[in-house]
């Protein structure tokens, strides 16, 4: 794996250099986060050695390098989901490559179902912790000590100092937010009412089909990590309604503006 990571990293360094210390993963419908990036270079995933291809609607599948508030950043427009059939190593491959080109902070975003009864569609959740319900783990298999340790401590996957900075920004900008626990599932099915209830009982505040693998790998690679959910539908007892991918994208696009403001300010103070 290290050879593949290094080949992809060498390609990227040739294309964009190694100035970016922050990488942003743009989740479903959150592409408008990229609007503020002054793009220097856009690279299709197809052109990057060993990168898988995206298939899901709403994901462009390209890597952007540019400046956000004058800060050099890399942004993934489109991520690799486990439910698409990729294995955990493929899903998290870009995070490994970012580390190899000098990135030290990963900002993740996603669309999620709200299971905390106070959540509303369009709310922003700053993820404080996760529950891995993928029944798989990107670190399963032989561990390469050059990438990280065998048994990583998981007490602070989402960097507290980054969360505090994001909170200060949101408060200063008058943007309301929640702090919550994200349950990551393999998908592609949304939850049955009983599953939503179970995830709530187990301590979750929202549920989605991404983020957990990438956060684990960012943490394994000793990178800072922060993750945001946009609540696109509700899995709250009595409020569970039919949900479609189209609705998720629509709600995410609408709420993405608030996230855009937070992330734009956050990159300045990382
Ligand atoms: N469940 C799982 N994943 C999701 C949801 C949901 O309700 N909404 C957006 N992604």
SSE arrangement, N to C = HEEEEHEEHEHEHEH
The major beta sheet can be summarized as: 5 strands, mixed, barrel
Strand content: 25-35%
Structural class: alpha/beta
> Considering DSSP H and I runs of 4 or more, what fraction of the residues is helical?
25-40%
Q: Which consecutive residue ranges, at least 5 long each, have pLDDT under 50?
A: none
Radius of gyration: 17 Å
How widely separated are the two ends?
29 Å
Number of domains: 1
Give the CATH architecture: 3-Layer(aba) Sandwich
**Inertia-based shape:** globular
DSSP summary: helix tally: 6
* Strands side by side in the biggest sheet: 5-8-7-6-9
CATH class annotation: Alpha Beta
Bound molecules: hypoxanthine
In CATH, the topology is named: Rossmann fold
CATH superfamily: Nucleoside phosphorylase domain
Report mean pLDDT, rounded to a whole number: 92
What does this structure look like?
This protein has 270 residues and is of the alpha/beta class. The radius of gyration is 17 Å and the shape is globular. A five-stranded mixed beta barrel has the order 5-8-7-6-9, surrounded by four helices. The chain has six helices and nine strands, in the order H-E-E-E-E-H-E-E-H-E-H-E-H-E-H. Helix 1 packs across helix 2 (88-100), helix 2 (88-100) crosses helix 5 (212-220) and helix 3 crosses helix 6 (245-269). The chain has one domain (2-269): Rossmann fold, CATH 3.40.50.1580. Helices cover 31% and strands 25% of the residues. It has helices at 2-16, 88-100, 160-172, 193-201, 212-220, 245-269; strands at 22-26, 38-44, 62-68, 71-77, 105-114, 124-133, 178-185, 206-208, 224-234. Hypoxanthine (HPA) binds next to strand 5, strand 8 and strand 9.
